[in-house]
Design goal:
Radius of gyration: 21 Å
CATH topology of the domain at 38-47 and 127-148 and 178-466: Neuraminidase
CATH architecture of the domain at 38-47 and 127-148 and 178-466: 6 Propeller
Helix content: under 10%
Structural class: mainly beta
CATH class of the domain at 38-47 and 127-148 and 178-466: Mainly Beta
Strand order of the largest sheet: 1-35-34-31-30
Number of strands: 38
Strand content: over 45%
Largest sheet: 5 strands, mixed
């Protein structure tokens, strides 16, 4: 990727199928046993300044050690000590940051309506792919993308950019007059791309167009390194389904997670929600064929937040729940108002184990990324208390952010809490090849980095490197 010389960012202050109902709980579940838990600390942080509304929605780590963040803005964005206009109702922006937080390159795109990127991923060759949805128009390299009505999904591939320079890349729109949203993107080792989202109406992702059956369905699509369609598949029944995240499998397939109501797949009536919205996990093969599918949840409303697949084919799913989630020996429960969970599923779709986080208050799962050794880092928002190993975390007031590193067996290796008495939320997390962790979100009050502090009078987006 072509890059400009680094400059400082302005405002830098410094699951086989499960039945619908889980069995009744009997004896109390044993406490999770693990050794001493190490400490995470903030090594660098950046506040993304501007004059209107701004949000960071995703982050990816590049093969050369930088991070790329995406978000949307209105009115103006402070970049390189000057205000860059955000002329549409909501503009897409993309920033490449050095590990220190210095700005390397930037893109602000959009001239009409609303453009919202939802997720970003980095390819091994240095290209960046991002997905989202729009009700308006934006230019991206030689491409101009305009919505057909409602909100349409888009996929963009970026090969180079610099402040004030040309954008090298292209973007493609998918959808009709109904609503289509691309929510997650992942890459294969060979340079191919996976995307997942939610749609109603008709969406053409290559091959036969997909037509929704009911309220909203999920789409999964794969493209090869040249951008040519490999497969596109629909998942959904007569009620509402929402995609949350997607991950590539070692053999060229995909695992997608989200939330569903009613029957997930009319051809497979065994996967039925227990009430409200339940988390689903669905695996597809290299040609888009269905492999396995399972549901997680109870009569409460569950949320899906992330998924990774390790080199051995094990899937880890991140979500939030109330009551209980799982079944049999792989069952976890909480007496808190809401807790987060991580579920481990083997390569054949069998639920192996489930672990929860959050003893009191409300804990919500926000984001997940794979570590170089096959484990995971997760980002949670919490109020109340969370206990992991020999560590106990108490929120300072409103929501704080907790970052945990887990090994493949779901044991916590390191942990760190970030925030003060005001609200802090995570929206994305990524890990580079050296194990450096990049976190994005929004905060009020202060965030501390060593002897330095960044301060926000109202909710502001932030980027942080954690060690």
């Amino acid at each position: 990727m072509r890059r400009a010389s680094p400059s400082a960012l302005a405002r830098l202050v410094a699951l086989p199928l499960l039945s619908a109902c889980a069995p009744a709980l009997q004896d109390p579940l044993p406490a999770w046993q693990e050794g001493p838990v190490g400490t995470f600390q903030a090594a660098a942080a950046v506040q993304i300044g501007g004059t209107g509304a701004r949000a960071l929605t995703g982050v990816a780590a590049t093969s050369s050690g930088e991070s790329v963040v995406v978000g949307h803005c209105s009115d103006g964005l402070f970049l390189s000590d000057k205000l860059t206009p955000c002329v549409a109702d909501e503009n897409l922006f993309l920033l490449e940051l050095a590990p220190s937080g210095g700005l390397i390159a930037s893109v602000v795109a959009g001239d009409l309506g609303s453009v919202r990127p939802r997720a970003v991923a980095a390819r091994a060759d240095g290209d960046i792919v991002l997905v989202g949805d729009l009700a308006g128009a934006f230019d991206f390299g030689p491409s101009r993308v305009e919505s057909a009505g409602g909100r349409d999904a888009f996929l963009a591939n970026l090969t180079g950019f610099s402040p004030g320079g040309d954008v090298l890349g292209e973007a493609t729109r998918f959808g009709d007059v109904a609503e289509q949203r691309a929510m997650s993107v992942a890459t294969f080792e060979d340079g191919g791309t996976l995307l997942a989202g939610t749609f109603s109406g008709t969406i053409d992702l290559g091959g036969d167009p997909l037509v929704s059956e009911g309220d909203r369905d999920v789409f999964v699509a794969a493209r090869n390194a040249a951008g040519e369609p490999r497969f596109a598949a629909r998942i959904g029944g007569p009620l509402a389904q929402q995609a949350a995240a997607i991950a590539a499998t070692p053999d060229g397939g995909a695992v997608v997670v989200g939330v569903f109501e009613g029957v997930l797949d009319p051809a497979n009536a065994a996967v039925v929600s227990a009430g409200g919205g339940d988390v689903f996990v669905a695996a597809r093969g290299g040609a888009g064929e269905a492999r396995w599918m399972l549901a997680l949840g109870d009569t409460g409303n569950e949320e899906a937040a992330g998924v990774i697949v390790d080199p051995a084919g094990q899937t880890l799913v991140l979500g939030s729940f109330s009551g209980r989630v799982g079944r049999g020996a792989a069952l976890t429960a909480t007496s808190a108002e809401r807790a987060a969970f991580v579920a481990a599923i083997d390569s054949k779709g069998a639920l192996v184990k489930v672990r929860s986080f959050g003893e009191t208050g409300v804990t919500r799962a926000r984001a997940m990324a794979r570590t170089p050794d096959g484990g995971a880092v997760i980002a949670l928002d919490y109020t109340g208390r969370i206990e992991v190993g020999d560590r106990v975390f108490e929120s300072e007031g409103a929501e704080d952010v907790l970052v945990l590193e887990l090994d493949a067996s779901l044991r916590v290796l390191r942990a760190g809490s970030f925030g003060d008495e005001y609200a802090q939320h995570a929206t994305g997390i990524a890990v580079d090849g050296e194990g450096r962790i990049f976190l994005v979100g929004d905060f009020e009050g202060t965030l501390t980095v060593g002897d330095d502090v960044i301060t926000a009078a109202s909710s502001e987006p932030f980027w942080m490197r954690i060690e």
